[in-house]
TrEMBL record, chain A:
This is Uncharacterized protein. Residues 66-89 are annotated as: Disordered. The chain crosses the membrane at residues 12-30, 42-64. The keyword Transmembrane applies. InterPro entries: DUF3311. Keywords: Membrane, Transmembrane, Transmembrane helix. It comes from Actinokineospora terrae.
Automatic annotation (TrEMBL), chain B:
It is found in: Membrane. This is Solute:Na+ symporter, SSS family. Keywords: Membrane, Transmembrane, Transmembrane helix, Transport. GO terms for cellular component: plasma membrane. InterPro entries: Na/Glc_symporter_sf (IPR038377), Na/solute_symporter (IPR001734), Sodium:Solute_Symporter (IPR050277). CDD domains: SLC5sbd. It comes from Actinokineospora terrae. It comes from the Bacteria. It is a multi-pass membrane protein. GO terms for molecular function: transmembrane transporter activity. Belongs to the sodium:solute symporter (SSF) (TC 2.A.21) family. Its main location: membrane.
């Protein structure tokens, strides 16, 4: 049963970092040949470098949102663990 | 016949076969007669196993063969696989955690199980299940296409049914150990497959450019080739017409990937949320590999590799480009390892896909409509049997129908699976959409998507229908109205269909809300979406 007033969504602003890799969809940024790297046109090495950006984004979010919902738990006595386990309800 | 390569291939294939059978006892639970065990490996895979399993599942033999082949023939446009697999993990990060938790809390095995629980609608769940099965089947057939490209390069390039015999033998073996060991078989084999793949590709991207005069020379050779061809769509860079297609195809494919039942199977089999989070950072290692592999398509151009003529169809098969490149540039023994990597690379995803399709059939069709009182044991039995049917269906596809047909179907499959996004992925966050809105959106997206694909001819003009997934905006037709008349800019069909799907879903939801139509019962609770491996009162695995 859905509880009214609780969407069950936990929001953290760190999650916004996950949007950065989407820059790889804006093709005009990198659809060019220069500057080259190891003989590779910009188009290719820029997108390969995108892998590192993606990893960085997911890693930072993982570390910064570890085991703590950033939205404060409602009520005074609920610490992080009870909220995480859904035991407070 | 290439004997050295063949011997290396057969030996490695033999090792994998033994592993496949041994896997039944690897980290075994109390019983294999439960879908949690047979179909999800006991839901207890840790970070490493999950990394190999999902990596082996997502980056398939066909990918390894087809992506460089596409680069070989089209150039820059074929590189979409890289942005696709880069944005995939940041996009999937949050939703995958939610679906893992709710599935762990409620014992869901398939995405359709979740839809059933979230909306209490067996109709919607049935649509999701059927979409999943239909989209997965040609994907399995494609793995066979990848495997056969290798077998033919090895010299097993006979005509008629004899030419297909090696493929058939390989698949019977696969079918038997998947039947016996369930998801544990591909999980264990994935270790071998991925280690081989990493070795081969790292050696290839270091050794071949040195041998062929560096990346500069390779890109020059590719540039010269594309400039010499009359085709307007190829080249070292994207052009004004295919940039939108590039971006929407990458985005659409990324959104679709974890909607495929087999990718979700790998995720649900993991032990906890931390395992998934770690893998969202670790899996891109495969993306890097895929990007480098894609460049081997250009290496093949520089090396002057020619595609093999398929004796069964009589056409040159561009999918043999990479195997042929390896055969021509590497010593025989190493080419054998490379072939084994691609060949075994076909077995892992084929096994997981057949398990995922079998799970869908068993949970959402068999138990829902045929035998409601099926016990967990009956379910496991039915799923094992279904996995056999699915695999032999895929073999029949390759044997009796032009392989081109499975490539077409896979194209269609991607567009189809994307249409389950509102019912599965959006439903993880909100129940705002009405059941009938989701059903209506599915029908609209699916119908329109199919019509658009049907009307797209192939680039060389040889085939009139299902030729590509790129639609010219000028041909976008809304009941006779051409909003972008005359435009030659291309866009991914799946993306257009998804937009249509969402628009219809929103409209019907608004109307249904006004009319106060009953919107099913949600069996899930908000806390279910945050359950983790160490949560209190966690549902036991493989009980009920």
């Amino acid at each position: 049963m859905t509880q009214p007033g609780r969407s069950g969504i936990r929001w953290s602003s760190w999650n916004l970092l996950l949007l950065i890799p989407l820059g790889l969809l804006i093709t005009p940024i990198f659809n060019r040949t220069g500057p080259e790297l190891f003989g590779m046109p910009f188009y290719y090495w820029f997108q390969l470098a995108g892998v590192a950006v993606g990893v960085l984004a997911t890693s930072i979010v993982f570390v910064m949102t570890k085991d703590k919902p950033t939205t404060p738990a409602p009520g005074p006595d609920r610490d992080v663990d009870t909220l995480d386990e859904g035991a407070g309800r | 016949m290439r004997w050295t390569e063949l011997v290396v291939f057969v030996v490695l294939f033999g090792v994998v076969t033994v592993l496949g059978f041994v896997a039944a006892r690897w980290k075994a639970g109390a019983t294999l007669d439960h879908l949690d065990e047979w179909g999800l490996g006991g839901r207890r895979f840790g970070s490493w196993i999950t990394w190999f399993l999902i990596g082996g599942d997502v980056y398939t033999a066909y990918t390894f063969v087809a992506v460089p082949a596409l680069m070989f023939s089209a150039g820059a446009a074929g590189f979409f696989a890289l942005p696709y697999t880069v944005i995939l993990y940041p996009l999937a990060f949050m939703p995958l955690l939610r679906i893992w938790s709710v599935s762990r809390a409620r014992g869901y095995v398939t995405p359709a199980d979740f839809v059933r629980g979230r909306y209490g609608s067996s109709v919607l769940a049935l649509l999701v299940a059927i979409t999943g099965i239909v989209a997965t089947m040609p994907y399995i057939a494609l793995q066979l296409v990848g495997l056969e490209a290798v077998l033919r390069t090895l010299g097993l390039n006979g005509s008629g049914i004899v030419g297909h015999l090696p493929l058939l033998i390989a698949f019977v073996i696969l079918a038997v150990y998947t039947y016996q060991s369930g998801l544990r078989a591909p999980a264990l084999i994935a270790f071998v497959k991925d280690i081989l793949v990493y070795i081969v590709i790292i050696v290839a991207v270091v050794y071949l450019p040195i041998k062929l005069g560096g990346w500069g020379a390779i890109f020059d050779a590719a540039d010269a080739k594309f400039k010499a061809t009359p085709a307007p769509g190829d080249g070292l860079l994207l052009n004004a017409n295919n940039q939108l297609q590039y971006a929407t195809l990458a985005l659409g494919s990324a959104l679709a990937l974890f909607l495929y039942p087999h990718s979700l199977t790998g995720v649900l089999a993991s032990r906890g949320r931390k395992v998934i989070k770690r893998n969202m950072s670790a899996l891109p290692a495969y993306s890097l590999l895929l990007g480098l592999l894609a460049l081997l398509g250009f290496v093949a151009i520089a090396a002057g590799t020619k595609p093999l003529i398929n004796q069964a169809t009589g056409n040159p098969d561009t999918n043999t480009i990479i195997p042929n490149l390896f055969a021509g540039q590497f010593p025989a023994w190493f080419a054998g390892i490379a072939f084994a990597a691609i060949g075994i690379g076909a077995l892992v995803p084929a096994a997981i896909m057949s398990i995922a399709a079998a799970n869908l059939w068993t949970r959402n069709i068999y138990k829902e409509y045929i035998r409601r009182d099926a016990t967990p044991k009956d379910e496991a039995k039915q799923a094992k049997f279904a996995s056999l049917v699915v695999k032999f269906g895929a073999v029949a596809f390759v044997l009796f129908i032009d392989p081109q047909f499975s490539i077409d179907l896979q194209l269609i499959g991607g567009v189809m699976i994307l249409q389950t996004l509102p019912a599965v992925a959006i439903a993880l966050y909100t129940r705002w959409f009405h059941i009938w809105g989701l059903v209506g959106g599915w029908i609209a997206g699916m119908g329109w998507g199919m019509i658009m694909l049907f009307n797209i001819p192939s680039a060389d003009g040889k085939r009139k229908h299902f030729g590509a997934s790129a639609l010219k905006l000028g041909e976008l037709n809304l009941f006779g109205w051409h909003p972008f008349g005359g435009s030659t800019v291309q866009i991914y069909v799946g993306f257009v269909a998804l937009v249509a799907n969402l628009v219809v879903a929103v409209l019907i939801t608004l109307v249904a809300g006004k009319l106060k139509v009953f919107n099913g019962i949600d069996q899930t609770e908000p806390a279910d979406y945050h359950v983790d491996e160490d949560s209190a009162k966690l549902r036991p695995v493989a009980a009920h």
